[in-house]
Design goal:
alpha+beta, 14 strands, globular, twelve-stranded mixed beta sheet
C-alpha cells in the first residue's frame, strides 16, 4: 500500500491518461474508434493536450486574481470555438440546465451540458483545460486531473464496456466577466465541478461539487503511481486520529448520510459528533478536511468559505462508518458525512466495481468512492434551485452499470449503502 504521507500527484501523467481516454472513445459519446486508428491519432493529439493539463495551475492568491485569470482563460477558450460551438457551450446564468447536467453517472446515462472535450480540436481541448487550471489551486488541479486519469485508466484496463469513460464536458452559464456572476461547469464520470465566480460580490463558490475516484491507486503509462484521494484520506484520518476514544465512539455511532451527486438534498443533519464537542485543534483539522472541497481555488477564497462554515461549526454534525485506520489493504473503506447550517460534505465508499474490474487493482471500497460538497444556504450562488439529474431519484437508466440509485440518494441509518448510484 502506498504511504499515506506520500501524496503522489503527477499532472503530466494524468493528462496523458486523459488523452488516452479521449482517443479511445473517439469523437462522439458512446462511440469507440477502431484500435488500429488509435496510435496514429495519439501521435498528433497527445502533446498539445498533455502540455495544457501539465501546465502550472493558478498561482493566484486572492479571489479577484482567480476571477481575472479564469475570465481571461474562458475568453481565450471561446476565441478558439466556431459560432456553433459557442452556442452549444454558452447558457444563460439562471438556466436550470446547470442543475440537471451533472452526476456521478457516466455520460451515457446523464446528458451533460456544453461541449464534450472529445469533440474539440487539440487547441480547443488545451484551452478548455487552461480554464480549469486558472480556476483551481495547484493541489485541487492535481486532484482533479488525477481523477480524470483514473477514469481513463479504467477505460483502457478494466472490463467495463462503458464507452463514455474518460470523457469530460465544459459548459458556461452567464458571460465571463470580472464584474458579473457566471458559472464554470466541468465534469464527467466521477467529477462534477460547479464553480460560480462573482466579481461584484468578490466571491467564488464550489457548491455543489462532486469528486469521485476509481481506482484509488493506479500506475500511469510512465510507470508512476497516482493516488488522487490520498490528500482527502490523509486529512480525514488526521481528524479521526485526533479524537479521544470517547469522541470516536460518538462519531462512529452516528448516522452517515449521503446526498447523491446530481440529486436534490434535504441536508439531514443526522446524529454523531458535533463541532461543539471538539477542541480548537480538532476544529482546525476538520476545517482542513472540508477545504478539500470548499477551498479548491486561492487562499483568500478558501479562507472566506471556511470562515462561513466555522461560524456555525458548533451546530455541525460529523458521522463516520467503516475503517478506523488508513490502510487500503484492509477492509472496505470509509464513509463519513459533515452536515451543518453552512456545509454538507459526504464521502461514501461504493461496495462494488460497477463492472469496472481490473486484475490486481482495487475498484471497490477504498478503490471506488463518491463524494459531494454542497452549501445548504448557497448552492449555485442561489441562482437556481437543484433539480434531479436524468437517471437520478428513481434509479439509473436501463442498463446503467452497477444498478440504480436509491430513491432518496442516501444510505440507511448507521452505515453506508451497499452499491448505490452506480459506477
Amino acid at each position: 500500500m502506498p504511504s499515506p504521507s506520500a501524496r503522489t500527484r503527477t499532472l503530466a501523467a494524468a493528462a496523458s491518461l486523459l488523452v488516452t481516454g479521449m482517443l479511445l472513445t473517439g469523437c462522439a459519446v458512446g462511440t469507440q474508434v477502431a484500435t488500429g486508428s488509435t496510435a496514429s491519432t495519439a501521435a498528433s493529439s497527445t502533446d498539445a493536450t498533455a502540455a495544457s493539463a501539465a501546465s502550472a495551475a493558478s498561482d493566484a492568491t486572492t479571489t479577484s486574481e482567480t476571477i481575472a485569470e479564469t475570465t481571461a482563460a474562458v475568453e481565450a477558450f471561446l476565441a478558439t470555438l466556431t459560432d456553433e460551438q459557442r452556442d452549444a457551450v454558452l447558457y444563460d446564468y439562471d438556466d436550470e440546465t446547470k442543475t440537471t447536467s451533472w452526476s456521478n453517472f457516466p455520460l451515457t446515462f446523464v446528458e451533460r451540458a456544453g461541449l464534450n472535450l472529445n469533440d474539440l480540436s487539440e487547441e480547443q481541448r488545451a484551452a478548455a483545460m487552461e480554464v480549469l487550471a486558472s480556476l483551481l489551486s495547484e493541489e485541487a488541479y492535481e486532484t482533479v486531473t488525477g481523477i480524470m486519469g483514473g477514469d481513463a485508466y479504467l477505460l483502457e484496463h478494466s472490463s467495463s464496456t462503458e464507452t463514455s469513460l474518460g470523457q469530460y464536458t465544459i459548459a458556461l452559464f452567464g458571460d465571463a466577466s470580472e464584474t458579473e456572476a457566471y458559472e464554470v461547469q466541468f465534469g464527467g464520470h466521477h467529477l462534477g465541478i460547479n464553480a460560480t465566480l462573482d466579481g461584484a460580490a468578490g466571491e467564488i463558490t464550489f457548491a455543489p461539487t462532486h469528486l469521485g475516484v476509481q481506482p484509488a491507486v493506479y500506475t500511469d503509462a510512465e510507470g508512476t503511481e497516482v493516488q488522487p484521494f490520498d490528500g482527502i484520506y490523509t486529512d480525514a484520518f488526521a481528524f479521526f486520529d485526533s479524537l479521544t476514544t470517547e469522541q470516536q465512539a460518538t462519531l462512529t455511532s452516528g448516522a452517515v448520510s449521503m446526498c447523491a451527486p446530481g440529486d436534490t438534498c434535504d441536508f439531514a443533519t443526522g446524529t454523531g459528533l458535533t463541532g461543539a464537542e471538539l477542541t480548537e485543534a480538532q476544529r482546525e483539522l476538520l476545517l482542513e478536511l472540508i477545504a478539500n472541497w470548499a477551498g479548491m481555488a486561492d487562499a483568500e477564497t478558501m479562507e472566506a468559505a471556511l470562515a462561513k462554515i466555522e461560524a456555525t461549526l458548533d451546530d455541525t454534525v460529523i458521522a463516520w462508518s467503516g475503517e478506523t485506520v488508513y490502510d487500503m489493504s484492509q477492509g472496505d473503506g470509509i464513509s463519513f458525512s459533515i452536515s451543518g447550517p453552512n456545509v454538507y460534505v459526504a464521502l461514501q465508499a461504493q461496495q462494488g466495481s460497477a463492472g469496472a474490474d481490473v486484475s490486481g487493482v482495487s475498484t471497490s471500497g477504498w478503490g471506488h468512492v463518491h463524494t459531494i460538497y454542497r452549501d445548504p444556504t448557497n448552492d449555485y450562488a442561489n441562482s437556481v434551485e437543484q433539480q434531479a439529474a436524468t437517471g437520478m431519484g428513481g434509479g439509473a437508466a436501463a442498463g446503467a452499470p452497477g444498478g440504480g440509485a436509491p430513491a432518496d440518494g442516501g444510505m440507511p441509518e448507521g452505515g453506508p449503502e451497499g452499491d448505490d448510484a452506480a459506477a
